[in-house]
Amino acid sequence: MIELSAAQARRLVVVCQGLHRANPFGRSEAGVLRCIDQLGYIQIDTISVIKRAHLHTFWTRLPSFQDGELDQAQRDRKVFEYWSHAAAYLPMHDFRYCLPYMHAIASGQKHWRKPDKKMMASVMRRIRQDGPARARDFDSPPKRPADFWGGSKPAKVALEQLFIEGELMVSHRDGFQKVFDLTERVLPAEVDVTKPSSEEFYRYLILRMIRAQGIATEAEVGYLRKGIKAGLRDQLQGMLADGEIVGVQVEENPNVYYSSQEILDSALSVRVAKKVHLLSPFDNLVIQRKRVSQLFRFDYQIECYVAESKRQHGYFCLPILFGDQFVGRLDPKADRQNRVLLVRNLVIEKTLADPERFARELSAKLNLLAVFNDCETVSIEQCNVKKIAAAVKRHFN
């Protein structure tokens, strides 16, 4: 069992997540592809008080990122959309590892709701004959209560069911609307469509998680995946016995983590720059909240799903990463009409050894976040540490 200090574990994770220096993946579409290949997936979310989560997650690691670069990667068939633990962009070369879930859903396993086979057949005929289509391209029925998919339109539900079964893929996006087409017309001919064996699938989950996160527990590898616990445990133990992975213990942490000797040797020696990152609530680093609490001693919850009267920090608070530690959070809103990035609440939760440097770095990052959100200025409305707020505002000028 390899032992790591808490600081070493944090550094390892930050490096593997590509948050250790300003521009770890390069630029343009090539940088987008290197980023998603390292992280394994990028979660998609619809909330738009600032730029949507998938765009924000790329921007955090690719300072020059432009929305069109992701669109182009999708049109070039280098990335695709599917369900990871949630809706996500994935590298196209990982397509075959989505086949087990596609086949399970097509065989009757429920995803969100019972499919309407008649409507699904009608939708397939329409797309096969007329080409790619959006949900809005189908006639709307009389109004009924909204369902999970954001509307009651049967064609929309059918599209999503056909998508999750693998019959349709998202060809591209029109704005934020998905444009669906037949999988056979979207999937590049060279992509491997052989369904992986259980062993291959478990190995994929394990190695992808270790590559992206540095260390991971059994539960973290299997996060939100049903029916794989026993098989995943057997695979981990087999890889451990073969020396392909190693066990890791982190000081004052009861968990057994897994990593590879190669990753430990390469990443632990990398320096983490003392820079500020404002992470999306759906960023790969923070999406597993229990993991963040145990490794970084940072308790985080997104409060947009919490009743307003019960929110402690704000609707869409972003975790603030400074070097390899979370030091607070801030609640932003892009006032696009007035071109102002509003920081409705800035909360500093740790004593800072160099508050002036932090203020300078935070100010610079907020200015960049404003530009990314088509804003020209930043306004801090509330902060629990007035000296920090004053220092940040001073660096705006």
Automatic annotation (TrEMBL):
Pfam families (UniProt xref): AlkZ-like (PF06224)
Source species, domain of life: Bacteria
Protein name: Winged helix-turn-helix domain-containing protein
